[in-house]
Each structure stands twice: as structure tokens, then as C-alpha cells.
Input
Amino acid sequence: MEATAPQPTRLGRLERPALTGVLVREVVNFSSFWRSSTFSSTVEPTIYLLAFGFGFGSLVSKVGGYSYVQFVGTGTVATAVLFSSAFPAMFGTFVKYQFQRTYDAILAAPVDTEELVTAEALWIATRAGVYGCVPLLVAIAFGLDPAWGMLTVPLIAWIAGFGWASFGIMVAGFAKSFENFNYVVSAVLTPLFLVAGTFFPLSKLPKWAQVLGELNPLHHCVELVRHAAFGFHWTDPARLGALVVFGLIIWRIAIYAMERKLVD
Output
């Protein structure tokens, strides 16, 4: 009988060595530009906090029973998470596969697209979990009372950051050029950012806007952080579950988008 050629074995999904390899590469690469990345990801939300907190705070003393600085200070955590996850994921991913061809080199190693996307999202989420705490620390410096519940904020920011990182990777996977990002930023991210309950409570909006606001993942992040600072609420498990579901669904779509792009 003729000997049959051995069939190539398919790599298992989400193998730890592959994830670790991509993560280590990201950490090493990040060490060369961490200052600029940290500056851009933390200063802008802090400016929002100071501008709105003290600007509108001089006109509005209390919102929802809290001082306006405290209200905005807890809300801008979600803004920091968004800025440090969705935007770096969109632009960074597009540059890596379209211009630098970094992903082609990574996929030449025993790493598949699912592992690559997952590792990238995990790394960006970790950064977002750290950066998201900066506005909270600034708010504490300006009068927000520390609370034990705030220890959960890095985890909340990480979970939200994973979802938004996957969103950015997904957009980059479907985009054909940088110009396509303008549609996403203007038509998706900006409305979600404004109607998240960061600068004003959704209860003051029309009923239909309140319903749409409850579908906003950024709003769930705002509410979870605010409750962590001022006292947890019975709706928090549902909000946390919504963030987890959002992250998992967008993560799978991001993998599909990148598999489609990298094959093409």
C-alpha cells in the first residue's frame, strides 16, 4: 500500500503561546510610544472634566443629587475608555495591516486571525482599564469622596474597553480607507458619546431618547462607574451583562471582518 502523506494539523484556537506572543510584542512596541499615547488618552477626557465640571458647574450646582463636578468626573471615565480603545483600535489596526503589513508577518508565525484579534483587543482593553481611572483620580483631587466601590472601576473599564477595542478592530476590518472612519466617528461614536449620561442625565431627555440611551453600551459604563462611586444599584448586574454581551458579539464580528480582510 502506498503511504499517505500526513495531513497538516490545524492550529487550535486561542492557544496561550500565540496570545502571549502577540501581547509581548505589543508591550515591547508600546514602550517606544507610551508617553504620547498616555498623554492623548488621558488629557482630553480630563479637559472635558475640568471644562464641563467647572464651566457648567458654576451654573448648575447639583445634578441627580451630586455636585456637577462629581457627576461629570464619574461620567468621563467612560469617555477615557472610549478614547483609549475605539480610536487606537481603528487607526492602529488599519495601519498595521494596510501599510506596515505587521499582521502578515504575525500570521506567518503559528498564530491565526482569531488569536491575533483577541490579543489585540485584550491589550487595548488593558490600557483602557488603566487610562479610564485617570479622570476619577482627578475628580477625587477636586472633591469626589473615595469609596471602596471605586476599586471595581478598572474592571468595569476593562470590560467596556474590550468591547470598544473589538468595535474599532471591526471597523478597521470593513474599512477600505481612512476616509471611511469619518462616517463612523460622526454618525456612531459622537452620538453615543453625547447621549451616554456623561454630562447630563438621560432622564431629562424625551422618552424615546431615554430608550435609545439604554441601548448605548457607553451609558452602561457611565452608570456602573457612577454607582461604584456613589453606591451600587440593583440594575448593575444587568448593565454589566450588557457590556459583556456587547463585547463578545462585537469581538466575533471583528474576527470575521479581519479574516475577510486578511484573506483578501
